[in-house]
Amino acid sequence: MPLTLSELARLVDGDIVRGGPDLLIEGIAALDEAGGSELSFLGNEKYRAQYLATRAGAVIVPRGVTEGPETSALIAADNPSFAFGLAVKHFVAATARVFTPGIHPRAIVDESAKLDPTKVRVHAGAVVMAGAEIGDGSEIGPNTVVGEQVKVGRDCLFYANVTIRERCLIGDRVILQPGCVIGSDGYGYEVVDGRHVKVDQVGIVEVQDDVEIGANTAIDRARFGRTVIGQGSKIDNLVQVAHNVQLGSHCLLVSQCGLAGSSRLGDYVVVAAQAGVGGHVKIDDKAVLAGRAGATTDLEGGKTYSGHPARPYMEEQRSRAMIRQLPKLVDRVKALEKKKD
Q1: Which CATH number applies to 3-95: 3.40.50.10490, 3.30.70.100, 3.40.1390.10, 3.40.50.150?
Q2: How far apart are CA 199 and CA 140, in angstroms?
Q3: Per the database record, which ranges form the UDP-3-O-[3-hydroxymyristoyl] glucosamine N-acyltransferase non-repeat region domain (predicted)?
Q4: Which residues are catalytic?
Q5: CB 175 within 8 A of CB 233
Q6: What span, in angstroms and rounded, lies between the C-alpha atoms of 67 and 332?
Q7: C-alpha angle with apex 96: 92 to 99, nearest 5 degrees?
Q8: What letter does residue 249 receive in the DSSP assignment?
Q9: What fold, for 102-313?
C-alpha cells in the first residue's frame, strides 16, 4: 500500500527534512536503483556517492544531514537502517509469510507428541518424534526433524531440513534457517590403546527466546549438562558452536567463526567472521573479536581485539605496522653493513 511522506515519517518515527508531506511513495529500493516513487536510505557513509546521485523519491538519512539530491525528499531518523526496515515491513506485507495451521498428510507426527494441530503448522516430510512438544504458533518446515522429547516454544519458525536432536530445549520465537543442526554430538574422544575412543555426549542444547540461527550452522550438545545459546543472540550461517559452550544474551556470531568446547561468552559479545575462541576461554560482556582473530586466553569485556593470539585492537595494529616496516629496515641494515665493509 502506498504511503505519503508524512505517513512514512510517522511509521519510522522520523522527521521530514525536505519534501511535501503529500508526496506518494509506492515501494522501496537501493540508492542506486530507486526511482521517483520509491524510498531508500543512507545508513553508511561509504554509500554517500550513491546517495548524492540517487533518483529515489525519498531517502531516510541520519539526523543532521540536510544536503542531498535535489529531487529527493528527506526523512531524518536516529537509525536510518532500522527505520528503513520498518518501511520494508510495510511494503512487503502483501508477500510476507502467512501462518496457516495444520499438519500435512505427508508429515510424520508420533502419537505421543504434544501439539495442537489447529495452532501449529507441520510441513510435508517433517518428522516430530515421540514425546516432543511443539508450542502454539510454531511452524516446522519441510523435512525438518524434531527429535524425541524435544521441547519447542511458541511462535518458532524452522525452515527446511533443520535437525533438532533428542531432549534439546528451544525457547519462544526462535528462527532456525535451512540445514541448521541443534544437538549434534560434541567432538570428544580419548586415546585408549592407541585408538580414538568416542566419549559419550549425553547433555543437551538450550536455545533461549528470540534467537536466530543461520543456515548450516551446528550447535553441539553438551558432554553433560547444557550448551546454552542466550536470549536474543543471532548466529550467522556456517558457524560452529562446540559442546558445553555458554553463550550470553544478545551476542552476534558471524559466518565461519567457531567457539571451542566449554568457552564462555558474556552478554553482547561479537565474534566476527572466521574468528575463533579456544576451549575453556572466557570472554566478558561487550567484547568484540575482530575477523580472523583467535582468542586463546581470557579477554576483558568492553574492548575490541584482533590478531592471533587476540590482543587489543590498536596494539595489534601497531605491531602490524612495524612488521610492514621490516623490509625497509633489512635494506637499511644491509646498506650499513656494505658501507662498513
Answers
A1: 3.40.1390.10
A2: 31
A3: 22-89
A4: 243
A5: no
A6: 50
A7: 160
A8: T
A9: UDP N-Acetylglucosamine Acyltransferase; domain 1 (2.160.10)
